[in-house]
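I am still getting used to backbone structure tokens and would like to learn alongside you. Label the sequence line and the structure token line clearly, so we can match residues to local backbone shapes. Go ahead whenever you are ready, and we will take it from there:
>
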Amino acid sequence: MKLAVVGATGLVGQEMLRVLEERNFPVDAFYAVASEKSIGKIIQFKNKEYKVVSVDEAIAARPDFAIFSAGGSTSLALAPKFAEVGTIVIDNSSAWRMDSTKKLIVPEINAHVLTSEDKIIANPNCSTIQMVVALNLLHKHFQIKRIVVSTYQSVTGTGKKAVEQMMQERNQGSATEMAYPHRIDLNILPHIDVFLDNGYTKEEMKMVNETKKIFGDESIRVTATTVRVPVIGGHSEAVNIEFAQAFQLPQVLDLLRQTPGVIVEDDVQNARYPMPKDAHGKDEVFVGRVRLDETQPNTLNMWIVADNLRKGAATNAVQIAEYLLTQPWLNTGATKSAVI
């Protein structure tokens, strides 16, 4: 098994390495790939030291998998080059998500659509992943008609520069380099990614379009407001869901407890509900504050939290690779024994 991680020195790339180690993903040859300025830098992985190599060197090695977390423009330029030599690319950027020829995968929901023809596989947006994981069984049983979601997203979703800005503002009162157009500490920004002509941000439209593609249901109506908050640890979401079918609240809670990848934390009498600090470093999606919307029928409110660097990015990508290892058509030397 030959594995490349492209963007290995970034926040998500480093989380990829941790997740691969924790889940004991089988690796015989490892290639850490990053920007030219990082070539030669030492990376620790599975108790060994590896030098960061160039893209050309990694492609020449013909890895079985290349997990990308290096930005959209890098993925557009390099993913096809890896695919041309037979490598399966799992890409964490937005580059391929809405490409009609590429699959957008959350393993708990739609990994079964993957085939041997899929050489570039898209990892969804972090805020979309945690929402659809939580809603998966509810959609199967009651059919989602409409989702209204407001997010409270960690600065780690932007990257190292954003974390440094927040900590400098917290410790020194101001930052020398700004990842955001405004202060983030002691503030919130209703602005994630660029604004589009319709007044929504690109992040908000990602949630709209990706939700439909993952569920394979264009009839679902989604509207989103995405907000950056001065938090490290995970993204939080307030979600209002209208269903086509009637339900009882106990049914909903039972289904949530049965949903793969979900942990229900819902005990408001004892102030128990999901929080980013508790989701940090964990792979599960946490759900709480589950209650009926009393203003209209067949509608729920819930609170969803997950570590955006884990299930929202690194863990989901590794789970895709694990699923592929179980498929008889995958032509690698690795042991096909991984499970999601």
About this structure: The two ends are 18 Å apart (CA to CA). DSSP finds ten helices and 14 strands in the chain. Residues 333-340 have pLDDT under 50 and may be disordered.
